[in-house]
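Standup notes, structure subgroup. Blocker cleared on the zinc ion input:
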Amino acid sequence: MTAPSRRIPGEAVAEGVGRIPGFVNCYTVISGGETYLIDTGFSRKAGSIVRAFQDAQVPLDRLTKILLTHHHVDHMGGAAYLTHNTPATLACHADDAPFVEGRAKMPVSPFMRLFMRVRPTPVASALKDGDRVGPLLVVHVPGHTPGEVAFYDPGQKLLFSGDSVVENRGRLTLPAPRFATNLEQAIRSLERLRALDVKTLLPGHGTPVVKNVGPLLDDLIRRAPTDFLPRPPP
Ligand SMILES: [Zn+2]
Ligand SMILES: [Zn+2]
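Run returned:
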């Protein structure tokens, strides 16, 4: 009999945590007999997720839960396929569940909505701030979407930030303002993230940040109002 596989689908970024990189980073977390997937990418990314499981020799039917940081198509596009083809159920914040399930229209302009069409997928568990999912704590950081969440692992001091903060060329930043539902709220949510003790930031877009997360967040908090909020007329 062989020992159970300790392999992680994706590039190992922490103990029991893998990153499946791309335009959107998806992360796998194996803990306590459960296998979690944080975000799915666009629907076409499902193939690279399946391959990452195959390469790690982790059967796809071990996938127990898909955790969405928010309802945008680049993060949940593969949810319909993966919930149909694995035992995994879907979880996201209660305030984004109506958009994931197609019961509400996305709170962005009709033009932007054209780019963001998703295949509605049932949400099995609606999350709220402070919930615990395995090793992860749910942190509600609204603004990019009403139900945007980050997942925080206090044991390893990891922050899966989704689109609440992203990385670009060594700096932290917010996603393009036109995708946000409330920019002022998104900037206030950064303070919430700053209050956490984070060693490794695992963003929805960009490269993981493994040092100076606090000072980099401070820098973003300082410049965000001028960089992202519309200027008042002179
Ligand atoms: Zn987004
Ligand atoms: Zn995104």
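Discussed briefly. The radius of gyration is 17 Å.
Next: hand off to the docking folks.
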